[in-house]
Hints:
Number of domains: 1
Shape: globular
Strand content: 25-35%
Helix content: 25-40%
Number of strands: 2
Order of helices and strands: HEEH
Number of helices: 2
Radius of gyration: 14 Å
Amino acid sequence: xxxxxxxxxxxxxxxxxxxxxxxxxxxxxxxxxxxxxxxxxxxxxxxxxxxxxxxxxxxxxxxxxxxxxxxxxxxxxxx
Length: 79
């Protein structure tokens, strides 16, 4: 499970919510999907680990792609 993998790899995750979007499949067909949005805080050198976790998850689905957004240079504080 992605949640468990992110918890053990990055010490946590945050579920942001669901969003709905459209994706043009390789066949040209439109696919409308509702997806779960998660955030993890990680160091730049851990990005490949996250990509591997997501690739392993994607391999178990019928999805053509997963959306990964990386925001750099963000100061995060846990107080």
